Amino acid sequence: MGLETKPLSTLHEKSSFDLADFEVPTGREEEWRFTPLPRLRGLHNGKAPASGHVVVEVDAAPEVTVETVGRDDPRIGTAYVPRDRVSAQAYSAFEKATVLTVPAQAVASRTTTLTLRGRGQGAAYGHIVVRLEPMAEAVLVLDHRGSAVYADNVEFVVGDGATLKVVSLQDWDDDAVHVSHHHAQLGRDATFRSFVVTLGGDLVRLSPSVSYTAPGGDADLTGLYFVDAGQHLEHRLLVDHSVPNCRSNVEYKGALQGEDAHAVWIGDVIIRVEAEGTDTYEYNRNLILTDGARADSVPNLEILTGEVAGAGHASASGRLDDEHIFYLQARGIPYDEARRLVIRGFFAQVIEKIEIEEIRQRVLAAVEAELEK
């Protein structure tokens, strides 16, 4: 008799605002087996008191209302309930939350930027809520900089017919630790576009997730990461299809170079019994540029209904294609330049999805800087 395997959905059924409901992870758990727990600096075991500081600087479009509220604000926790111990620790420890609201039918005239700037030693905890009322449209940038040990939760509540586009930049200093959950709750015919760029930090573990409350929801989750020697960059995605006729697409690409560079990508998609007509696909590709780098890529797809429009996943990790390099060298391009051209081409398709010109140029410059190392 073969071993009985538990369905994927059991990994995501536990949720609670109470920290005591989550045991301290040991590293043997499925959701923690790739994460080097000692490098979390106590975020996972309660040994990181809130003695640090991360400043939230807001540059908002005139149509966007920005508020700093206390823990008792009723808008906090309406879309997302923590699903692991660090997320629950962040929820139990934050003191003030930032709430952004775009009123019904308003179209933001420019990008809203939240810069989260770490101020050195000590752990800090945060919470952000972004609410788009029905038929509203907005573009948001979350820009993470500085040095910090930081855990936070971000809730995106996208109302019926609303459209939210988010770019999240993890451009921390080399010593930073960041563990974050981004959750998008989509209403009827709502559109959510997320672009994650992870470059800086000693350890970054980002968990984007999506849920739907009514048919017609449409989510695109795109990501880019470049891992250097000694870095651990981890992305754990969950798309939970629980209503009919919704769509999701996930595409993440990463490059790794240097000794002990480690990338982890986990892509979980659940299509529940009631989610007939779902159309979903997830894709991850890693480019390993040097010896000593490691990429773990695990796409998971659980389909509990036979009535789907489409469902698939793919994952690949490998080295630069020698044929591509040879083709360019045969046309007089030196090896180093040929290598850069191939890597630029690898990232080009996802970078083109960044609609904000300033951010797109910043990401291109960051990739160029990585290639110069």
UniProtKB/TrEMBL annotation:
InterPro entries: Fe-S_cluster_assembly_SufBD, SUF_FeS_clus_asmbl_SufBD_core, SUF_FeS_clus_asmbl_SufBD_sf, SUF_FeS_clus_asmbl_SufD. It holds the Pfam family SUFBD_core. Transmembrane segments: none annotated. It comes from the Bacteria. Belongs to the iron-sulfur cluster assembly SufBD family. It comes from Thermocatellispora tengchongensis. GO terms for biological process: iron-sulfur cluster assembly. Residues 121-346 form the SUF system FeS cluster assembly SufBD core domain. SUPFAM superfamilies: Stabilizer of iron transporter SufD (SSF101960). This is Fe-S cluster assembly protein SufD.
